[in-house]
Design goal:
Layout lengths: L9 E7 L3 E8 L7 E3 L2 E6 L2 E5 L1 E3 L2 E2 L24 E2 L1 H9 L4 E2 L2 H4 L25 H19 L9 E6 L5 H13 L6 E4 H12 L4 H4 L5 E7 L4 E10 L5 E8 L7 H17 L10 H18 L7 E6 L11 E6 H12 L17 E2 L2 E2 L6 H11 L7 E5 L6 H15 L4 E3 L7 H13 L6 E2 L5 E5 L8 E6 L9 E11 L3 E4 L1 E4 L12 E3 L5 E3 L3 E4 L11 E10 L5 E7 L6 E6 L18 H12 L8 H5 L1 H9 L7 H13 L8 H15 L8 H9 L12 H13 L6 H16 L2 H5 L10 H9 L6 H17 L3 H14 L15 H12 L7 H10 L12 H13 L4 H8 L6 H8 L12
Length: 920
């Protein structure tokens, strides 16, 4: 079937779910033809292809030679050179072989503490297993759907149809942007986003369109509760009636993002079964992350069986052995229907009162690297959601998500809501929660064409520009009110901004799903401390004149904001004098920990400080003696206070002043020493401010030129101190470049040193020790090599100072929880166990740094792929207690905890800027 020229033949909805991917479609030219499910051809067994409506959102990465080429043959040409297995066969193989299954990629898209575009999945897999990024994994499912569709409809390629892709209502702008990037990588650059709870309700509207007036006659507020495999979403839809008695629907509220769903329930059951399997095993049994993932797949099937209608009394969960001992090493455990009900129903849907809101905390279970919600009780999260959104309690409930196939869970949630209301609840029938979202995405496309009922409501959030005025950093102005219509640009005309072309500009934004009292209007000022506000990644850009890229003039602009038809927020700077000149500001998705940095007002003495910097490093030649250069820091401190009190905004102003005068550092060795020392101090730790990526880019441009006074040992030392201090802002490629120089300085022989390029700066062993320990973004295998060098150095150490420095570096290199690096690049736990064995041989009473290093190597993260074995952890903990180690050190080994300021300072080698908090 081919549509008219330039027009799509089909309306297609894609539910890219955590557990399954589902596709539905309808004839674009015939609204009455109905919505169909697209049966996706996939591997059901090696060499066996069949069509199924659900495509498991899984990838299995087989070992070399594990499967024959013919076993993986699909009806269309394959472009995956690594021969990853997708579909039902991936689930089957993943349940049999540990450590090769990519799952829950969607949950990773909203996890800001890892690099979501780095190859990190399967999480915790062995080094010989191919890995993909969460974005690439998501893209592969969409690309598979595209290939299957184009095989069936060669005259109507999927990329030419009207596409709607569903996302959790709670996805922030970063996760939405990454979802769109995955679609682009899959060859689907043009589509719209719709929120999953809305799509589920659109499906209901479409199925009941002929009786909708009667069905909703007594309904005033509907709660859509969508609990999928990885996320939980709540939405409220208000119902009113027009003069003709037709229902008018408005989506009024959405909930915050919760990584809480069926995966958590499967994990809880897997922990129970693991404990049961370990009974009778000498020394107990703790599964690896890969084996636990395998057990979760088995527990998922048992859970669905035991919570279904006419469920058996019990089910047996079997975990196969590995390799040649596949059968002989298998273990089994029985779980009963009552146990599963108690664990899942009472654990995740407990009976609570309306006033019992969810427990707050930074994170709960950290398993497979994902920070699951701290409070597992979905009913308490629902109570919190309803408390945030004042008004009548919902009188009608629509449930969606695969977990509600278990009737016990649906009944418990409905009973809880009825208890809160004190009266019966209307339940809207969802005939198939597995496919409702995909069908609803098509119904949404029909509604946009005026061919089906439509839900109003516009933007689910209000957006605010943080003002950052003196003493009023908690104030913000509304730039996009909640319920603003999609596609309608709103300009904040009453506020003007003076911006300089060719220089970076940044804006800090916040959003809110609920505000006390009347929702704010455009231009209203709000207090960010007075409500549930979420700080967004900053908007930053460098604005260039389109005709003259070198133009540095200052222009006046206004902000224009729009909730796009695609479903994402866009903010433009628009020139006041020429509205045709406009620049799109983009969210900075790397380093989202920046939102923890506090803005503050700069010291009134900044101008004087910059004048002092100008005097030493400025372009105009001034008579400045060596002593004045050397004492620049002391002179700055007289006006600004001790440098340990300089906060991030002040530090960055000083760095900017130094960067503008970087050429002045070459005047003398003293100039260069002072410039390098101050620049590194003012930009540490390399992130924490929205413009730090731009600053790092400008600073890195100096790297290849090296230093002017390369024969001055102190200048060389300050050079390496600078890069150590800002390492947190360097990319993996930049850190690997530093690692090259690190290796040369440690390994080069006399002949090689004699022919070194002048730009390759000499570094002492101590310089290299501190630098190597700070490179958290290099691969774990390289860190292991650095650690091996440290171990040899430790064994040769002939002084306490050498021991202290080496042990500090070993703590950084082998840390289970990095400060700025991604968790997937830590040194493997087996190597760290060897290092711990060496540390345990030392006398910790005489060598206190050994206890400090052991604490960080044994630190508990809750992630099995990073944590050391329980027995070794217990040995370290017992030793810490025996030597009277600080309570925090002991807690770090026995539970998931946060570092205090003193430990953070010791680990980083110096204090962070005041107000900047590392999440690690």
């Amino acid at each position: 079937m081919r549509g008219a020229v330039g027009k799509p033949a089909w309306l297609v909805g894609i539910d890219l779910g955590t557990t399954n991917t589902v596709v539905a479609y309808a004839n674009a030219a015939d609204a009455q033809a109905g919505i169909n499910l697209f049966a996706i051809e996939q591997l059901l067994a090696p060499g066996e292809v069949g069509a199924r409506p659900l495509l498991p959102s899984l990838r299995y990465h087989p070992a070399a030679g594990e499967l024959a080429v013919g076993d993986l043959q699909l009806p269309w040409p394959q472009q995956d050179v690594e021969h990853a297995v997708l579909g039902a066969l991936a689930r089957q193989l993943g349940a049999q072989v540990p450590g090769r299954l990519v799952s829950s990629a969607k949950s990773w898209l909203s996890h800001a503490n890892v690099d979501r575009q780095a190859p990190i999945l399967p999480w915790g897999a062995d080094a010989d297993v191919a890995k993909v990024s969460p974005v690439a994994a998501s893209a592969s499912y969409l690309a598979y759907v595209r290939a299957a569709w184009n095989h069936r409809f060669p005259d109507s390629p999927l990329e030419e149809q009207e596409l709607v892709l569903t996302i959790p209502a709670s996805f922030d702008e970063g996760a939405r942007a990454l979802t769109l990037e995955a679609a682009r990588l899959a060859g689907l650059p043009t589509l719209r986003l719709v929120e999953e709870p809305q799509a589920a309700f659109y499906d209901y509207l479409q199925r009941r369109r002929d009786t909708l007036r009667a069905d909703l006659a007594d309904t005033r507020r509907i709660l859509v509760c969508d609990v999928g495999g990885g996320t939980t979403d709540f939405s409220l839809i208000d119902v009113a009636f027009d003069e003709d008695g037709e229902p008018q629907l408005t989506r009024s509220s959405v909930g915050n993002h919760l990584i809480l769903g069926g995966d958590n329930m499967d994990l809880a059951l897997a922990h129970l079964v693991e404990t049961r399997m370990a009974a009778g095993v000498e020394g107990g049994m703790k599964l690896s992350a890969a084996r636990l993932s395998q057990l979760m797949e088995r527990c998922r099937a048992a859970k669905e069986l035991l919570l279904s209608n006419d469920a058996p009394e019990s089910a047996t969960v079997t975990l196969l052995g590995a390799g040649s001992r596949l059968i002989g090493a298998s273990r089994s455990a029985d779980v009963t229907r009552e146990e599963v009900a108690a664990l899942v129903v009472d654990g995740f849907f407990p009976k609570v009162e309306l006033g019992e809101t969810a427990k707050k905390g930074r994170a709960g279970i950290v398993e497979f690297g994902l920070p699951y919600a701290q409070d597992a009780a979905i009913t308490r999260h629902l109570a919190s959601f309803l408390h945030q959104h004042q008004g009548e309690l919902p009188d009608t409930l629509l449930l969606n998500g695969g977990v509600f196939r278990a009737d016990a869970l649906a009944r418990r949630l409905a009973a809880t809501l009825e208890h809160w209301r004190g009266q019966p609840l209307t339940i809207l029938h969802n005939d198939n929660p597995d496919v409702a979202v995909a069908r609803g995405a098509v119904a949404y496309a029909l509604a946009r064409r005026g061919q089906a009922p439509r839900i109003g409501g516009g933007s689910p959030r209000s957006y605010f520009l943080v003002l950052g005025e003196a003493g009023k950093d908690n104030r913000a102005v509304c730039i996009l009110p909640r319920a603003s219509a999609s596609g309608e640009e709103i300009r904040l005309s009453e506020r003007l901004f003076a911006l300089r072309l060719g220089r970076p500009v940044r804006f800090h934004l916040a959003s809110s799903i609920s505000e006390a009292g009347t929702p704010p209007k455009l231009g209203d000022i709000v207090d960010l401390d007075a409500g549930e506000y979420l700080r967004l990644p900053p908007l930053a850009s460098v604005l260039h004149d389109k005709q003259d890229a070198g133009d540095k003039r200052e222009i006046t602009v206004q902000l224009a904001t729009v909730m796009t038809e695609v479903g994402t927020l866009e903010v433009h700077c628009v020139a006041e004098a020429d509205a045709g000149q406009r620049w799109l500001l983009e969210f900075q998705l790397r380093g989202e920990e920046e939102k923890h940095a506090e803005t503050s007002t700069a010291s009134p003495h900044v101008k004087e400080a910059i004048e002092k910097i100008e005097r030493i490093f400025g372009g105009k030649a001034q008579k400045v003696d060596t002593k004045e250069v050397r004492q620049l820091r002391q002179h700055l401190e007289r006006g600004l206070g001790g440098r340990e009190s300089w906060e991030t905004p002040l530090l960055r102003q000083l760095f900017d002043a130094l960067l503008q005068r970087a050429r002045g550092r070459r005047r003398s060795a003293e100039h260069e020493r002072v410039w390098l020392n101050l620049a590194g101090y003012c930009l540490r730790p390399g992130y924490g401010d929205a413009l730090d990526p731009w600053r790092i880019e400008q600073l890195w441009a100096l790297f290849d030129t090296g230093i002017q006074h390369h024969k001055d040992n102190q200048v060389c030392a300050e050079w390496w101190t600078l890069w150590r201090r800002v390492a947190g802002g360097l990319s993996t490629q930049q850190q690997l470049r530093l690692l090259d120089d690190f290796a040369f300085n440690l390994q080069a022989d006399a002949a090689q040193r004699g022919s070194r390029p002048v730009t390759l700066v000499n570094g002492s062993d101590d310089d290299m020790l501190r630098l190597g320990a700070s490179l958290e973004r290099i691969p774990g295998a390289y860190k292991a090599e650095v650690g091996a060098w440290l171990i040899k150095r430790l064994q040769k150490a002939d002084s306490e100072a050498a021991d202290t420095n080496t042990l500090w570096a070993l703590a950084r290199v082998g840390a289970r929880q990095p400060f700025h690096g991604s968790a997937h690049e830590v040194v493997d736990s087996a190597t760290v166990a060897e290092w711990l064995a060496m540390l345990l041989a030392l006398d910790w009473k005489k060598t206190e740094p050994a206890a400090f290093a052991a604490t960080h190597l044994a630190r508990m993260t809750g992630d099995r792929s990073r944590d050391i074995a329980d027995d070794l952890c217990a040995t370290v903990l017992a030793r810490l207690k025996a030597v009277g180690a600080p309570p925090l050190w002991q807690a770090m080994v026995s539970e998931v905890t946060q570092l205090d300021e003193a430990v953070t300072r010791r680990m980083l080698g110096e204090a962070l800027p005041p107000g900047l908090k590392l999440i690690g």
